[in-house]
Amino acid sequence: MGEVKGICISKIRGIQKHEVAEATLKENWGIEGDAHAGDWQRQISLLDYAEIEHVRSNGTDADFGTFGENLIVEGYDLKQLPLGTRLRIGEDAVLELTQIGKQCHRTCGLDKAVGECVMPREGIFTRVLHGGVIHVGDPVALEKE
Predict the structure, then answer these.
(1) Following DSSP, what letter does each residue of 74-101 receive, concatenated?
(2) What pTM value is reported for the model?
(3) Chain centroid offset of residue 105 CA
(4) How do 86-89 and 93-100 pair as beta strands?
(5) Residue 118 has pLDDT above 70, yes or no
(6) Residue 52: how many CB atoms within 10 A of its CB?
(7) What single-letter DSSP state applies at residue 103?
(8) Is the pLDDT of residue 21 over 80?
(9) Looking at 6-15, 29-38, 111-120, which range is the least confident one?
(10) With contact defined as beta carbons under 8 Å apart, do 11 and 145 qualify?
(11) How far apart are the C-alpha atoms of 107 and 56, rounded to whole Å?
C-alpha cells in the first residue's frame, strides 16, 4: 500500500506547481483547477517520493511540485508499473496509468531552476477513471480489474 505525500496544482502549464491539502478529481478530466486537466491521456502526473528525496540528497532544493508533478506518492516504484495499471486513491478516485515518462520541452524552465527535470524519466501519467476528493495522507492501492 502506498500513500499520497503531496498534491500540487498550477493554473499555468510549464511552471512549478504549488501544494494543496486536497483536490477534486473529475472523471475523464483531471484535477479541478490544474492547467493539465483536459480530455487527453496525461490528466494527472505522479512522481515517486523516493525520487524527490534522491534529488534532495544531491543538494537540490526540490519542493513538492518543483517538477510539475500533481501527486507525490510513496510506496511504489511508479515507473516500473505497466501501462493500464489502476491506482485507487482514498475511497473513490481511480486512475489508470497511460504513459511512463515524457519528452521534455525546453520552454518550461524547470531544468534551469533545479539543474535537471526528472519527469521525463521518472514521472508517470494517468487519466481519471473515477473521480472523487483526495487528501494528503490518503492510501494508494493497486486495484485489481
Answers:
(1) ESS-GGGSPTT-EEEETTTEEEEEEEES
(2) 0.88
(3) 17
(4) antiparallel
(5) no
(6) 24
(7) P
(8) yes
(9) 111-120
(10) no
(11) 24
Of 56, 44, 47, the residue nearest 9 (C-alpha): 44
Cα separation, 115 vs 88, whole angstroms: 33
pLDDT in tens, 39-66: 999 999 999 999 888 888 887 778 898 8
Confidence at residue 130, expressed as pLDDT on a 0 to 100 scale: 98
**Which residue type does 47 have?**
L
CA distance 67 to 134: 20
* Cα–Cα distance list, 26 to 53, 79, 93, 99 (Å): 29, 24, 9, 19
> Phi and psi for 50 in degrees, rounded to 5?
-60, -35
Enumerate the H helices of the chain as residue ranges: 49-57, 110-114, 119-122
Map residue 112 onto helix, strand or coil: helix
CA distances from 20 to 6, 34, 58, 145 (A): 8, 11, 26, 30
